[in-house]
Specification:
single chain; 2 domains; Rieske Iron-sulfur Protein; 385 residues; alpha+beta
Length: 385
């Protein structure tokens, strides 16, 4: 008898076969977050990202146009570039020094006359193109050079993501972090979209929001979520905010969607954040967090306050006076909601190995979990060969 975890077999969270199929059928067939537009400011700058089975890089050409290519030399397949950097005029493979211009054309082959006495047609050996596009100030790539548009992919959910304009905000570098969770990527997503746990696991860390009044739903495979501040917290909102507003009044609350398959956004009155999920293995996931704040010059005081509060420690959120912090060694008493989430995810992953695991009935606030699982199963079925 197959043991089930809601709509999926337990093996979907533990087996290498399931992981490999997801890499091929989901993460190699969807738009992949690569960074912010400002990460590639000038010609020659580039960044790379893993998109399922494909390593893809974006480079700005001499014409200031962004282009994406598969990070594979056309000679023997060696990766051309590392994660991030800048080149002056060309990209050279470290293996045999085949060289490409910023537009992806093969322009130089060392010892060409001696090594290829019959000649070589460089015009048909340019880099394999991928797709690149910009949405809400973020760079995205797709392994297919001619995929459905990025605007169409996010079109249905876009109106539910709040009034924020992240392309007009500036990054807060101290908030950037990357860490690993010893759990399947779906466990991490399910925790992110589980409304039921907000009032319980995070009762001492996310008490400033009224979880009972949360509004959430689906637009295609994408999950959207908004909740207002509590009456008490909202009554002194401007005083409570640790940094200047990023949205105009009277907008309030937290917009926390999860875009398929693993792009979390966290936006509120004072900041806008990304939570990027990268599956590393059946039971290992990497998280990257980046935050943006108001593009204003006169708030050095607020930055100092953030630092003194330990604000955004591991993207854990602000520490307010009166928080009950018993011990930073205990994730459940750390005052850090990220530490609480990591602990919960890793404990769930451990329990998947037990033959006594039996999932109980889903609460109303857990309905997003089954909806996400359904979206995964349907997407994989649609893209099976």
């Amino acid at each position: 008898m197959t043991r089930m975890y809601h709509l999926m077999p337990v093996e979907a969270y533990t087996s290498q076969d399931w992981f490999d199929r997801e890499q091929e059928l989901i993460f190699s067939r969807t738009w992949r977050y690569a960074g912010f537009v400002e990460d590639i400011p000038e010609p020659g700058h580039y960044i790379s990202v893993q998109a399922g089975l494909n390593n893809i890089f974006i480079v700005m050409g001499r014409d200031h146009r962004l282009r994406a290519f598969h990070n594979i030399c056309r000679h023997r397949g060696t990766q051309l570039i590392r994660a991030v950097g800048k080149t002056q005029k060309a990209l050279t493979c470290p293996y045999h020094d085949w060289t490409y211009d910023l537009e992806g054309n093969l322009v130089s082959v060392p010892d060409e006359e001696r090594e290829y006495p019959n000649g070589i047609d460089k015009s048909c050996l340019g880099l394999k193109p991928a797709a690149v596009d910009v949405w809400r100030g973020m760079l995205f790539v797709h392994p297919d050079p001619n995929p459905p548009s990025l605007a169409a992919w996010f079109g249905e959910v876009d109106p539910h993501l709040g009034p924020h304009k992240p392309e007009e905000l500036v990054e807060y570098p101290e908030a950037r972090s990357s860490y690993e969770i010893k759990a399947n990527w779906k466990i991490v997503v399910e925790n992110y979209i589980d409304v039921y746990h907000l009032s319980h696991l995070h009762s001492n860390t996310l008490y400033m929001y009224d979880h009972a009044k949360a509004k959430y739903g689906w637009s295609g495979p994408h999950y959207h979520f908004w909740e207002p501040p509590t009456e008490e917290y909202g009554a002194n909102l401007e005083k409570n905010l640790p940094s200047p507003r990023v949205i105009p009044e009277p907008h309030v609350g937290a917009w926390v969607p999860m875009l398929f398959p693993g792009i979390g956004l966290g936006a509120s009155e004072e900041s806008w954040n990304v939570f990027i999920i990268t599956p590393l293995g059946p039971n290992l996931t990497r998280i990257e967090n980046r935050s943006k704040v108001a593009n204003v010059s006169g708030w050095e005081y607020q930055k100092q306050e953030w630092s003194s509060w330990g604000f955004w420690k591991d993207f854990g959120g602000p520490k307010y006076e009166g928080d009950d912090v018993a011990s930073e060694d205990d994730p459940m008493a750390s005052g850090d909601f990220t530490a609480e989430d990591i602990y919960a995810c890793e404990q769930q992953q451990k329990s998947l190995a037990s033959p006594f695991l039996e999932i109980g009935p889903a609460a109303t606030g857990e309905s997003p979990i089954t909806n996400h699982q359904r979206a995964i199963l349907e997407f994989m079925k649609d893209h099976e060969k």
